[in-house]
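Quick one, tokens below:
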């Protein structure tokens, strides 16, 4: 099973805060992991903002350091301990915690544990503002980190049950109504047909067929 790492969280942060710099993220991470420093305002020579041979906006290395530091603090329990006194002490000591920051980016996302979401957000905003991020950038960074940590603790999301397939009821076969048979009318027998008005009974028939007795012919006068 794949577990999200700190670099996955960092990629989400850069995607929301500085999406134009995503293409340089992998190289920046490789350089940072060689010497994982705490968040700080970087002083770079002109023409080489990162000091590693290519141009980039200042926000990218700051985001890398802030995310690494916040996740390292969460994993070690420093956020849970809290308190301004501890924070001052930790500012003096965190520079030596290189392994914690390196592990924060390469290991699985730490659990929220007893730290509240608001405490994690406030801690992240403070780290970002101290490193030179603007207020909107620091707040966006905090929101993304909180969401990533909470989702990482939630475990695999339950897969919703597949919706039940609708029951297919057999449709009744269409009723075939027998068509009425055409009425076959027999032709009337001309011998028995009743002549209607104006009919010439027996027209065109021989006298034997019409059934009429031929009238007696009178002898023609000689």
């Amino acid at each position: 099973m794949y577990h999200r790492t700190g670099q996955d969280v960092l990629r989400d942060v850069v995607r929301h805060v500085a999406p134009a710099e995503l293409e340089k993220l992998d190289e920046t991470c490789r350089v940072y992991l060689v010497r994982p420093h705490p968040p700080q305002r970087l002083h770079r020579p002109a023409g080489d903002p990162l000091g590693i041979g290519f141009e980039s906006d200042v926000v990218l290395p700051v985001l890398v350091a802030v995310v690494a530091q916040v996740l390292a603090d969460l994993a070690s329990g420093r956020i849970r301990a809290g308190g301004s006194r501890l924070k001052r002490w930790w500012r003096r000591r965190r520079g030596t915690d290189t392994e914690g920051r390196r592990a924060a980016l390469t290991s699985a996302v730490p659990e929220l544990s007893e730290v509240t979401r608001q405490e994690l957000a406030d801690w992240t905003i403070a780290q970002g503002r101290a490193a030179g991020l603007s207020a909107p950038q620091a707040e966006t960074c905090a929101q993304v980190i909180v969401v990533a940590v909470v989702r990482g603790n939630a475990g695999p999301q339950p897969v919703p049950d597949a919706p039940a397939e609708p029951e297919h009821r057999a449709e009744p076969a269409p009723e075939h109504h027998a068509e009425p048979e055409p009425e076959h009318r027999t032709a009337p027998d001309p011998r028995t047909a009743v002549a209607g008005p104006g009919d010439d009974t027996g027209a065109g028939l021989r006298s034997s067929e019409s059934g009429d007795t031929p009238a007696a012919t009178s002898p023609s006068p000689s």
